[in-house]
Amino acid sequence: MRTGDELLDYIHKTHNNVYHPYCTVRMGADDDPSAPLDARLRVKGVEGLRVADGSVMPDLVTVNPCVTTMMIGEKCAD
After folding, report:
1. Choice among 13, 16, 20, 22 that is catalytic
2. pTM of the prediction?
3. 3-class secondary structure, 30
């Protein structure tokens, strides 16, 4: 049995961020309260702010998400 402090120490020593965090910010219609973004990547209720990163992907891609994320940024900039 390990103590909470021992487990926390283990996590601090072994944790790394090798995963690509994406698919975390839902896009949806203006009347969808569970979606913080509209279909044009605008943050609802915040004028002039858009999210153009991997978090807006609705599904996981089968390739490295870097290229897809760059495309999202380019399309958003258009």
Report:
1. 20
2. 0.66
3. coil
